[in-house]
Write a structure and sequence with these properties.
59% of the residues lie in helices and 13% in strands. The strands form 2 sheets. Strands 1-2 form a two-stranded antiparallel sheet. A two-stranded antiparallel sheet has the order 3-4. Helix 2 crosses helix 6 and helix 6 packs across helix 7. It starts with a helix and ends with a strand.
């Protein structure tokens, strides 16, 4: 074993472990609830979808995915009956991605399942420690977002969160 292998996992490794594990659990639960036709990659759209609709460009920004990837995912989800494109009343040239009835049901199921997963972790760590963990994780995400998007300092708009003040 080298010295490098003996070190604690870094932020990227830990974040990936948590992401992939939570994602597997969530999508397994969703499949058991009748949403077995979606893949975890669809989470880039589904996790940021709003009941009143959202532009594909905003989905790309909030998910951190390329517009082309989001476009392909929207196409797939539209074919499966989870979303539909409708004209944006604020701009006739633009389209909004809206959840269908099935999409709304999936969103409700996913939110409920995530509450279950989070509640399990809060119980294991203790509510106060879990809340502190999430607050620190939000701050790390905001700092990382700031670095990735120009490090302009002050308030930043973090995907899905609105303005945050990391310092």
């Amino acid at each position: 074993m080298t010295g490098r292998q003996a070190k604690e996992p870094d932020l990227g490794v830990l974040a990936a472990q948590v992401l992939f594990s939570v994602q597997r659990e969530l999508f397994t639960m969703l499949a058991e609830q009748g949403f077995d036709d979606i893949q975890p990659r669809a989470g880039a759209v589904l996790a940021h979808l709003r009941s009143d609709g959202i532009r594909a460009s905003e989905l790309a920004r909030t998910s951190g995915q390329h517009k082309q990837v989001i476009g392909t995912l929207i196409d797939d989800l539209e074919r499966l009956g989870y979303v539909e494109r409708k004209p944006d009343p604020a701009d006739r040239r633009a389209k909004l991605v809206h959840p269908t009835e099935r999409g709304l049901l999936q969103m409700e199921a996913a939110a409920s399942n995530m509450r279950t997963i989070e509640e399990r972790h809060a119980k294991a760590l203790g509510r106060q420690e879990y809340n502190a963990f999430k607050a620190a994780l939000r701050q790390v995400a905001a700092l990382q977002y700031e670095v990735e998007h120009g490090g302009q300092g002050g308030a930043v708009t973090q995907p899905g969160r609105g303005p945050t003040h990391p310092r």
